[in-house]
Design brief:
14 helices, binds ligand FO1, 7-stranded parallel beta sheet, alpha/beta, 37% helix, globular, 3-stranded antiparallel beta sheet, 14 strands
């Protein structure tokens, strides 16, 4: 295998990508060449405009993580960060104050926003930022693509007994950052998604891949939104590459983030098997050839296999790069020999 494509959200996906790249470079993945390329298609529905700046959390988390600039404790933003800009904005009484913008991070958003204002696409901006963050370490072997260059935003309808309708809609970032996903997400609205177009290179990255991986990202507001970009799902079912996923749900709950709330919001069972069956088997109009669950969920393997998806229970805790590389190796091993669809 020489070309791997990964559909990624923020923290979970970025952490997986670190281990995947480590595994490739150290030859730990069976049948994967050490100079194999990794193309990351990142979710952009978390994006928001704030203080006149375009913030792209999932693109930046992947970029900072693979460029070794991420703050490992927070899982987002820059390490060695300072907060003078945010503090000064608060002193001016500028709202919102709940979204933390570090000074170093602000520079990224300034570069991105002024390039967008100058007419560059999000793809071109991302390519420019990655020349600083990815090229020195990964050369041309890692590419980061936004799922679309069009504006897409996930909004969340929540109960609000002060409004006549009894509900109000907040941006996903307010739901997650200010409300800590502490209230039920009654409805998810993916503003602009149906009219969005895949960014340049996205469809080819799926159809030309030797392997497509769904990392343990949020299956609804990260992988789900990428799959929601028109033509992406068709590319996933048409590609000759095996498609393998890793469950973000372990022991009935998410490891980090808010996958549990999001799955509940769309009526999907919050379990390793539930997510695998939600993605569905390629042989049954779904997108998966293989699905890895954690050893804690080994009893769910049979249910996934019965749906036509190869399944195995392996350790899925990304405790360090070697552990994550072992997960990636298990994913490759599970489907490495899969027969491309047109030979079934
Ligand atoms: N997450 C938080 O929990 N609190 C924050 O203040 C916060 C700020 C922030 C700024 C830039 C950025 O790229 C990410 C940021 N995040 C913050 C994380 C963000 O909400 C998540 O990375 C995803 O959007 C959800 O997966």
């Amino acid at each position: 295998m020489r070309a791997i494509t990964v559909l990624s959200g923020g923290m979970g996906g970025a952490r997986f990508l670190q281990g995947l790249c480590h595994g490739i470079r150290t030859g730990a993945l069976p049948g994967v060449a050490p100079d194999a390329t990794v193309t990351v298609i990142a979710n952009t529905a978390d994006d928001l405009w704030i203080h006149g700046l375009k913030v792209c959390p999932d693109l930046d988390t992947v970029m900072y993580t693979l460029g070794d600039g991420i703050d490992l404790d927070r899982g987002w933003g820059r390490r060695d960060e300072t907060w003078s800009v945010s503090t000064e904005l608060a002193e001016y009484g500028v709202e919102p104050t709940w979204f933390g913008l570090g000074d170093r991070d602000v520079a990224t958003h300034l570069v991105r926003s002024q390039m967008l204002d100058a007419g560059y696409s999000l793809s071109e901006v991302t390519g420019a930022l990655c020349r600083r963050w990815l090229t020195p370490t990964h050369g041309e072997r890692v590419r980061l693509l936004p799922m679309t260059d069009d504006r897409v935003e996930t909004h969340v309808a929540i109960a609000d007994d002060e409004s006549p309708s009894g509900r109000r809609v907040v941006h996903f970032q307010e739901y997650w950052v200010r409300l800590r996903a502490g209230v039920p997400a009654e409805t998810l609205v993916f503003v602009g998604l149906d009219d969005s177009a895949p960014a340049p290179g996205v469809i080819d990255a799926i159809t030309d891949a030797d392997l497509v991986i769904l990392p343990p990202s949020n299956p609804v507001v990260s992988v789900g939104t990428i799959l929601g970009v028109p033509r992406v799902r068709e590319a996933m079912t048409a590609t000759r590459a095996p498609v393998v996923g890793l469950s973000p749900i372990v022991g009935g709950t998410h490891v980090r983030g808010m996958a549990e709330q999001m799955l509940t919001s769309i009526g999907v069972e919050v379990s390793a098997a539930g997510v695998g069956l939600h993605y569905g088997a390629r042989t049954a109009d779904g997108i998966l050839d293989g699905w890895l669950v954690d050893e804690a969920d080994a009893e769910e393997v049979a249910r996934v296999e019965a749906a036509g998806i190869a399944c195995r229970a392996v350790p899925l805790m990304m405790t360090d790069h070697d552990a994550t590389a072992a997960m990636a190796a298990a994913a490759v091993d599970l489907v490495g020999g899969a027969t491309p669809r047109d030979q079934v």
